[in-house]
Amino acid sequence: MVVPVYNEEKSLPDLLERIVTSLEGAKLSYLKGAKLRYEIICVDDGSTKDGSAKWLKDKALTHPNLKAVLLRRNYGQTAAMAAGFDEARGDVIVTLDADLQNPPEEIPRLLEELNKGYDLVSGWRKNRKDAALTRLLPSKIANWLIGKLTGVKLHDYGCSLKAYRKELIAHIRLYGELHRFLPALAYIEGARIAELPVKHSKRKHGVSKYGLGRTFRVVMDLFTVFFMKKFLTRPMHVFGILGIVSMTSGVLMGGYLSFLKLFFNESLGDRPLLILAVLLVLTGVQLFCFGLLGELLMRTYHESQGRPIYRVRHVIPSKGSQT
Ligand code: UDP
Ligand code: MG
User: Fold this and answer.
1) Transmembrane segments in this chain: where (predicted)?
2) Which of 44, 106, 189, 218 could crosslink 53 through cysteines, CB 3.0-4.6 Å?
């Protein structure tokens, strides 16, 4: 289990208890009566407003299955999850939020589904309990866009409750808001993906760490994922098409202007709008490509340096693994 934690002190005791109960009680058909072996890795993403880090630290010292990973500062949910992935030793990794919006009771169902022959099972919050206008609507649009651009059709990319085969994520390097694109990134790597409707609850304690700004960051990261898929193998297919479209429109506009000049002897100097349009199209394309190149360079930079996207302050192994 990998759980990113950022100022969630009030939810933690209940969370831990419910995960343990759910896993201890899981009767998984493929285990044939054997006991499920697991570790719960809670990654404290630099909580400052409450005692999440201390609670996890103290608890791990006495708990047989809880491992606490404390990051040096707040790096964001994706980085916290990546830290958890790097620590995980199991064959399967299940992620969920610390705020109990994802019911731990659903974990065994995810595992059963995964064992039907998938590499990734993604939760689908069919009855999502979040604000309609600020959360559900942007998510709907984002999910539609992601599906269109990446070719992976899921209803709910943002659901944190997911199960993965470990070897699948071992090769995927995360940064930014990319954790929600794990299905798309995994799909590029040839993963078999399933979606499973799961329950969703209202947040009981604390507040959401996100606002509308995240949707913007997610959409921006989406373009990177999309272009990674296309670009890494065939850069010219992407830039070529963009270039052709922009050139064609430029030529058409130029042709139209020449036509006016040649046959009607109109002066072109008083058509600022048309010229403005040409300029806007061209600069737009340029800026887009520059942004993209920058984005890709950044990726190369991260990958070539092997620079971690998080730094760990302290790892407290579970009591069980110490003895
Ligand atoms: N989280 C994190 N680092 C952050 C922001 C959030 O580790 O910088 C964790 C948070 O504690 C929670 C999960 O990511 O376990 C999802 O966050 P939240 O519940 O605020 O998101 P929402 O459910 O509102 O989308
Ligand atoms: Mg939440």
Assistant:
1) 238-260, 272-297
2) 44
